Amino acid sequence: MKTIYTDDHRLQDGKAELIDGKLQPCFEMPRRADIIIARVRDVGLGEVIPPQDFGLDPVRRVHKDNFVDFLHTAWDRWVEDHGAYDALPLNWATRGMRAIEPESIDGKLSYFSFDAGTPITAGTWRAITGSANVALTGQKLVADGARSAFALCRPPGHHAGTDFYGGYCFFNNAAVAAQAFRDAGAGRVAILDVDYHHGNGTQEIFYDRDDVLTISIHADPKQEFPFFLGFADETGEGRGEGHHLNLPLRWGSGWDAYRPALETAMGRIRDYAPDALVVSLGVDTFEEDPISKFKLKHDDYTTMGAIIAGGGLPTLFVMEGGYAVDALGVNAVNVLTGFEAAVS
């Protein structure tokens, strides 16, 4: 399995996020991807290659133009108004307010974001375009005939929607890749999100479509971020009715609860019979993750990879979350080696 990776991820290096009522160092840090790529190389997973540059057209296929343009100019506008320190939003439009895009940079940050944990920095634009290109390069490998590929994306993407960012995510790498599969001729594509947190952005992007099946296994939104999406009764709308599946699990869930949910997801994917599968690979389901409350263990990820391989589909893995940094490489690569062993 080839891995696509770029050092440009290190340019997203926020100083602080607001979490648990405190400004503290960001959990989403460059060391995450550094640990994973080191593990990929240590186990000899396969060749590591740099991404190609696909430009912004594939990104604009799933994200609105004004949102992309905002992210492109946000840092320069922030520095002009405030200085060269991380940009975080001031407030958010809530019930009873109007969703009209403001002119000022402070208003735009509030309009396009949904949390205060996703700082825009001097290097954000290069990092997020690099991350999207990593996903698109992996998509091209699989579309050209590879059985699988690993897009080591950072920053992650599954919380980003058509015109909003948050949850450490700016561009939705998995969604960009899924759309690229469709544009390359795939009749149907499935996205399986195994991150601890609900893939709210992915759901929003494809919710009214029947050509992309989206499934998310995640912590119950009654208990966990992002709170306001991810319930089991959200199944799609319009043409998309029946083409989205949420499988929320309660805090404290271990493999005994997670495995049946995963098997349910894979059963739905087999019934849908897509031409390609995109896996949003978050491993913050790990028992020692500092911001999560599931109880999966190292070996569970190997089994997870084998179960996903059972779908028999061309598969692109796109890296998402995971914040137990020292264990991150082992857990992420266990999924990939479990997958490889099952298809060899």
Task: Give an overview of the whole structure.
The chain is α/β, with parallel strands linked by helices. It has a single domain (2-343), classed as Arginase, Chain A, CATH 3.40.800.20. 38% of the residues lie in helices and 13% in strands. The chain is built from ten helices and ten strands. It has helices at 30-43, 57-60, 65-81, 105-112, 124-143, 173-183, 200-206, 255-272, 298-309, 325-343, and strands spanning 2-4, 17-19, 22-24, 48-49, 148-151, 189-193, 212-219, 244-249, 276-281, 315-319. β9, α9 and β10 form a beta-alpha-beta unit. α9 (298-309) packs parallel to α10 (325-343).
Give a quick precis of the structure.
This protein is α/β, with parallel strands linked by helices and 344 residues long. It contains 10 helices and 10 strands. Strands 4-1-5-10-9-6-7-8 form an 8-stranded parallel beta sheet, with helices on both faces. A two-stranded antiparallel sheet has the order 2-3.
CATH topology descriptor: Arginase, Chain A
Please state the CA-atom Rg, rounded to the nearest Å.
Answer: 18 Å
CATH architecture: 3-Layer(aba) Sandwich
Q: The biggest beta sheet, please?
A: 8 strands, parallel
H/E topology pattern: EEEHEHHHHEHEHEEHEHEH
Helix-strand makeup class: alpha/beta
The spatial strand order of the largest sheet comes to 4-1-5-10-9-6-7-8
If you average the pLDDT, what whole number results? 97
Overall body shape: globular
Number of domains: 1
% residues in beta strands? 5-15%
Number of strands: 10
CATH class: Alpha Beta
* Count of runs of 4 or more consecutive helical residues: 10
Q: Note the gap between the termini.
A: 11 Å
Assign the CATH superfamily.
Histone deacetylase domain
